[in-house]
Structures are given as C-alpha cells and as structure tokens.
Write a structure and sequence with these properties.
single chain, mainly alpha
C-alpha cells in the first residue's frame, strides 16, 4: 500500500510539474535562458507542493478504501500498517451495540460446542 501511496503522489506531482512548465513556456514568444530558468523553478516548486498534496490525498483515499473492505487477512494487514487500521477496527467495535462484549464473528453457540 505504501508503494501505491508514493506512486500516487509522484504521478500527481509530475502531472502538475509538466503542466505548469508547458503552460509557462507556451505563452512566451522567444525562449531565453532567464525565462527557461524561471519556468523550471516555478514548475519545480509547484511540482513539489503538488507531490506533497498528492501523497496526502493518495494516503487518505487508499486507507479509506481499505477501511471499507473487510478482507480475510485483516489481522495481518492491521499489523503491517502500524496499527492504524487496527484502531479503526476498534473504533468500529465501540460503536456496535454491545461493543466488544458481543462479537458477531467467530462465535460458537452453546448448543454447537457440545
């Protein structure tokens, strides 16, 4: 998941970098060194800022998607993500009527246990 978060940030930053660079150079009649340096610096600054924003947006979106899907390997995923998903699961259990005292999964009925 970390790979896709980083990749989303890089893609967003790259698109903004090239978009700003092309838009700044397209409006110029002649391209000299001063204009090129100015356009590159503005595009680099906007690309870095957009990379940061894209990184945060990718993180929020991917973790939101994972919180919606309950997979079979949820316990392993919770451990791999540093406990963030585990905290979400605990918050969900708190809001369920009965909380942790009334789990809905992995329950053995009294009649079946004998």
């Amino acid at each position: 998941m970390t790979y896709w978060i980083k990749r989303g940030g890089r893609m967003f930053g790259g698109v903004v970098f090239f978009g700003v660079l092309i838009s700044l150079l397209a409006g110029a009649r002649t391209i000299d060194n001063a204009l090129l340096l100015r356009a590159l610096s503005i595009a680099l600054a906007s690309g870095i800022g957009s990379w940061f924003v894209g990184f945060i947006i990718s993180d929020i979106v991917l973790k939101g998607i994972l919180a919606d899907f309950d997979g079979e390997n949820e316990a392993m995923e919770n451990l791999l993500e540093g406990g963030i998903l585990q905290r979400f699961q605990m918050m969900k259990e708190e809001f369920v009527p009965g909380g942790e005292e009334m789990p809905f999964v992995n329950v053995i009925k009294a009649d079946e246990g004998k």
